[in-house]
Amino acid sequence: MHITIRESGALTTVQDAGRYGYQGQGIPLSGAMSPLAMKMANILVGNPVNHPVIECIGTGPEIEFSGAVCFAVCGGSFRVFLNEQPIETNRTYRAKAADLLKIANAPRGRSCVIAFSADFVLPAVYGSWATDIKSGLGPNRGGKLQAGTVIELTEVRSTLPNMDRRFFPPGTPDPGFTVLRVIEGPNAESFSEKGRRTFYENAFTVSLQSDKMGFRLEGPAIETVQGNDIISSGLCDGAIQVTPDAPIMMMKNHATTGGYAVIAAVISADFSKASQLMPGDRIRFRKVSLEEAQEALRKQNAYLLAAEREFSRKGILGIFRK
Asked: Which of the residues 23, 186, 239, 251 could staple to 256 if both were Cys, CB 3.0 to 4.6 A apart?
């Protein structure tokens, strides 16, 4: 069977966990903006957590199914419709032949992903299905999915166990602003004590000049003691470079190296929350230890593992039951 992109949406691409092992050659990691949304959606449809998905940024696509398959939409609070009827995010559904799935805009959140209980018949590039449009890497010749694109599916599963229990409860959005946990960056000594206090004690606003490479942050100037320039060094997801103009939080398509001082880095457990920020959203940063960051990631992974076991288990334990 196959799916057909009837309407493309603002920016619809194929993504997975990213292109690991090639940053030393200058090839960006790329991958889904929200790794947590990707993992949740794949768990809901019985896939490995890093299985390829379709990612939507902004208004999403309209997709037609040629046969029966299960799917799930996770991420921002997008409005989702199956045959013009509203359906929930973070829940598994079954589509049949000629059904139409439509992803409309989101009141909150930048991106969502769609996972299917099937494999995509698409070529991997450097071992990954992640699309990086600026580098021209990934399926569909490194481009976004256009209207008329047909994606063949194989190893299709049209039913899954415990369909009525395959959902994640909705989260509660932060009122007013988002708090992101960070660990101290490798260039903290480049900033004065006043500069570090400014960073941790003030709110910053996500600028309109933000994309999948990085989010520019508007706020008070962060004082340095030896300038912003450093010898270029490697960057990771969530690293916050302080340029002479503004701090920039590195997102999934960030460059492999950078020459500005990194004051902090968003912890892995909070990166997916950071990825959903929209222009105008306000954020604060809270410093935690490396041990706290590791524990937060362990808890997040344990939650996903418990869900994966729950969805495949026979019986009615229902740890996510409403």
From this structure: 23
Distance of alpha carbon 58 from alpha carbon 106, whole angstroms:
7
Show the domains of the chain with their CATH numbers.
2-165 (no CATH), 178-288 (2.40.100.10)
Taking alpha carbons only, the member of 172, 170, 171, 161 closest to residue 317 is 161
Length of the chain: 322
Q: What is the pTM of this model?
A: 0.92
d(CA 22, CA 234): 12
CA distance 304 to 260: 35
Dmax over CA atoms of the chain, in Å, equals 63
With the C-alpha atoms ordered 30, 34, 37, 40, is the resulting torsion angle positive or negative? positive
Per-residue 3-state assignment (H helix, E strand, C coil) for 94-112: EECCCCEEEECCCCCCCEE
> pLDDT tens, position by position, for the chain (322 residues)?
999 999 999 999 999 999 999 988 889 899 999 999 999 999 999 999 999 999 999 999 999 999 999 999 999 989 999 999 999 999 999 999 999 999 998 888 899 999 999 999 999 999 999 999 988 999 988 999 999 999 999 999 999 999 988 999 876 555 557 999 999 999 999 999 999 999 999 999 999 999 999 999 999 999 999 777 888 889 999 999 999 999 999 999 999 999 999 999 999 999 999 999 999 999 999 999 999 999 999 999 999 999 998 888 754 444 444 3
Burial of residue 119 (CB within 10 Å: 0-12, 13-18, 19+) is: middle
Distance (Å, whole) CA 288 – CA 271? 14
**Cβ-contact 276, 76 below 8 angstroms:** yes
Q: Check the CA dihedral 35-36-41-47 and report its sign.
A: positive
